[in-house]
């Protein structure tokens, strides 16, 4: 089907292209045209198309079309624990409030609670997530059913999953459909033996796959690794050949100059999670230093039990606000950089470069933002408005792979996710009662 | 008129009362009943009422009724500079991007740009603001016209306004209507001569009024005062008798033990502004220490040029997130404390104790929050959901003084503020063009 968005302001995130007034056309899952609507003869001639028969034409009424947000680190189904236990020290929280309940979750339970998170992603303009959780099979099924783009990563550690299972999932969960993929990953250094880490490095070589994991989230985790191995997790992983095909580290709060040299050299990106790092008192990541060193930064919400919301607007503000506090410099990490992290960089970190910006041939992962909300007025600078005063209440539409999965065009929230919202909540309540009694 | 809210979840913020299922009734500007709807015979007997004829009955469908948020520090009309210049060092920003343009604003310009801020307050469930800006007369008029509750404070300094003007406004802007009031205030120590400060202290004695001002926002401001007077602003103001009737300080980021002793003794509250303090790299206020010392804390957004959004949900998360980071303690400043700051404490700081909670006889400053948004699901703990995953996209209604000023009951946003929203934006664009050319 062909969809035409016209009368739009367009922020492509394609290089430094400024916001312009124009149109965007989609065909099935791809963008086939972005421009100001002039010189269409040239377009038709170049593409060999004739006049297009529109399946739908949407008058954007001057509102903004831009790439969807990329949430590069989450554990979606942890919605089941949202607000169950907050304001606790990290280890107490993990050992007493998370692990015992997670152990009771079935793949189907995880499927259902992932649904709540996906509803939240859609209302917040998130079109793609990088997921690490317990049952990738049921999560892939859920994302396909609801239309969410997802790159899953393994979460193997000493207590659950195995390199053999990751290997199997690399075969099973890749190449099956356009929305979901799977990459080599593991939980973290402090939960994996050296033997296990070596096997994971072997896997990344076998598949020539980048590797994804939690790295240097807390000071004690980092110090513990130095005690165990005489080096930081970044250095240890590098010595094991883990980064020979690049990858990304979630959190990376506690890094030193040597870590950053390795990351730069081995194309290891940062996925920063400022909401979670604050709520769990883990620290402030050195974002300014990553930018100075030319290390790409993307953004994640982390899971809904440690954040607790899945809102890239909150995260975007926190990225720059915390960087400003950390460096005592109000000019640190400007809004344009943050917006690039939340969109363009996120797509590249998730190995889906076709979702990085709005351009001919790119994936139609697109959102519409309401320019007539008071928090977006007046209009001096749309990028700054998005980062500093934007809110998910401005999201009017979330389209993934050319399908509108969420919109508020006629006032009401309309979800297009294969199941009614009240039914999703009801089924999750039933599971909650079963698990917690 | 009598309005009945039924089928609601109710969070009164009245002591430790837990959320319950029930009803809330209003009559004109006041609440006349809050309860579970049982034992109404006793109610009618006690109050001498007979059966009430409802002007409107609203089925809350299980959604949450709670007191509106109190934004205790703002400069509303600075919407005119939102996103005009971000990511700049504080003094550069103030001297080159703020003061030259502010000087061109007429009272009517300020009236119009205050409107945009009030629209934003309403969409975010804010029912009351403490305002410091240039033309209190036109601001009071705007708030009355749009139905916003406001406590204004003087902003006198060496360059504008005068103690005589504050005196005049104390007479002119108090006792005229129920929505607006005016209190003694000044800009800050570093912009006022000692002679001026003494006159302000005299005024507070004349009116037995608490005093409000920016205090110890930045380290350099605090150090500068110590250089000038051999003491901090808090100590200086106290020595001048400025706090003999209490008051509150905006920001209070850089305080020491002695400052906090004075604040405790003289009933000086803190209005913390974490969004602004982060964006301008001013620092993190010692909120845990204020709580430990028993000093009341309320929350403000600060103005929309330094934050840039007027969203108490963002501020609530920041209050606890930054406190956790500052103290390296994930249990610091729990959600229940934050919610009290944003509602109950705010009302007391603004000298409107009748707006502090939902109870018989209190002001009908009430909001409704959507419990069926995915970020509010599942329901383990409603208070924690509000602080950690709540969003202004959850706001379904904002009522001030018994009048519904904003709602989304039938999907669309409906404002009841005396002027159409597109006209407000259009008129502000005209002013913007005139001022900036």
How are the SSEs placed, and which strands pair?
The structure is a homodimer of 437-residue chains.
Chain A: E1 2-10, E2 20-27, E3 30-35, H1 40-47, E4 56-59, E5 64-67, E6 69-74, H2 90-102, H3 107-123, E7 126-131, H4 136-146, E8 149-153, H5 163-172, E9 180-188, H6 194-207, E10 211-215, H7 219-229, H8 233-239, E11 247-251, H9 257-265, E12 268-272, H10 274-279, H11 287-292, E13 297-299, H12 312-327, H13 335-349, E14 366-369, H14 382-389, E15 395-400, E16 403-407, E17 414-415, H15 421-436
Parallel strand pairs in A: 1-4, 1-5, 6-7, 7-8, 8-9, 9-10, 10-11, 11-12, 12-13
Antiparallel strand pairs in A: 1-2, 2-3, 5-14, 14-15, 15-16, 16-17
Short description:
The structure is a homodimer of 437-residue chains. Chain A is of the alpha/beta class.
Question: In words, what does this structure look like?
Answer:
Chain A has 437 residues and is α/β, with parallel strands linked by helices. Chain A folds into two domains: 2-67 and 355-415, Urease, subunit C, domain 1 (Roll); 69-353, TIM Barrel (Alpha-Beta Barrel). Helices cover 38% and strands 21% of the residues of chain A. In chain A, helix 12 packs across helix 13. The longest helix of chain A has 17 residues, at 107-123. Chain A is globular. The first copy, chain A, starts with a strand and ends with a helix. The mean pLDDT of chain A is 96. At the A-B interface, helix 3, helix 10, helix 12, helix 14 and helix 15 of A face helix 3, helix 10, helix 12, helix 14 and helix 15 of B.
């Amino acid at each position: 089907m062909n969809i035409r968005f016209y009368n739009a302001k367009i922020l492509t995130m394609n290089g430094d292209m400024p916001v312009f007034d124009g149109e965007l056309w989609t065909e099935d899952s791809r963008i086939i045209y972005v421009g100001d609507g002039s010189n269409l003869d040239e377009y038709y001639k170049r593409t060999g198309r004739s006049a297009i028969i529109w399946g739908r034409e949407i008058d954007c009424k001057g509102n903004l079309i831009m790439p969807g947000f990329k949430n590069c680190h989450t554990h979606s189904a942890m919605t089941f624990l949202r607000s169950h236990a907050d304001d606790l020290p990290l280890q107490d929280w993990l050992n007493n409030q998370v692990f015992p309940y997670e152990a009771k979750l079935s793949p189907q339970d995880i499927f259902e609670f992932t649904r709540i998170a996906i509803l939240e992603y859609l209302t917040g303009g998130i079109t793609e997530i990088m997921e690490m959780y317990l049952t990738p099979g049921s999560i892939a099924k859920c994302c396909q059913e609801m239309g969410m783009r997802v790159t899953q990563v393994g979460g193997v550690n000493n207590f659950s999953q195995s390199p053999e299972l990751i290997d199997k999932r690399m075969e099973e969960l890749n190449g099956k459909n356009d929305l979901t993929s799977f990459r080599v990953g593991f939980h973290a250094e402090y939960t994996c033996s050296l033997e296990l880490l070596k096997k994971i490095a072997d896997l990344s070589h076998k598949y020539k796959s980048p590797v994804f994991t939690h790295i240097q989230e807390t000071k004690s985790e980092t110090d513990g690794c130095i005690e165990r191995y005489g080096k930081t997790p970044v250095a240890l992983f590098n010595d094991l050949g883990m980064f020979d095909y690049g990858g990304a580290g979630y959190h990376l709060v506690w890094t030193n100059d040597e870590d950053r040299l390795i990351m730069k050299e081995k194309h290891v990106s940062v996925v920063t999670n400022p909401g979670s790092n604050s709520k769990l008192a883990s620290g402030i990541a050195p974002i300014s230093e990553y930018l100075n060193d030319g290390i790409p930064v993307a953004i994640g919400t982390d899971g809904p039990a440690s954040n607790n919301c899945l809102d890239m607007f909150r995260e975007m503000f926190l990225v720059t606000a915390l960087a400003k506090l950390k460096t005592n410099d109000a000019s640190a990490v400007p809004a344009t950089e943050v917006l690039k992290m939340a969109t363009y960089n996120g797509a590249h970190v998730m190995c889906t470069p076709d979702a990085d910006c709005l351009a001919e041939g790119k994936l139609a992962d697109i959102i519409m933002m309401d320019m007539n909300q008071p928090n977006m007025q007046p209009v001096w600078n749309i990028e700054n408005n998005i980062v500093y005063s934007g809110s998910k209440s401005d999201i009017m539409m979330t389209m993934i792979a050319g399908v509108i999965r969420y919109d508020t065009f006629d006032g009401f929230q309309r979800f297009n996710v294969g199941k009614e919202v009240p039914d999703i909540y009801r089924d999750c309540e039933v599971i909650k009662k079963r698990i917690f009694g």
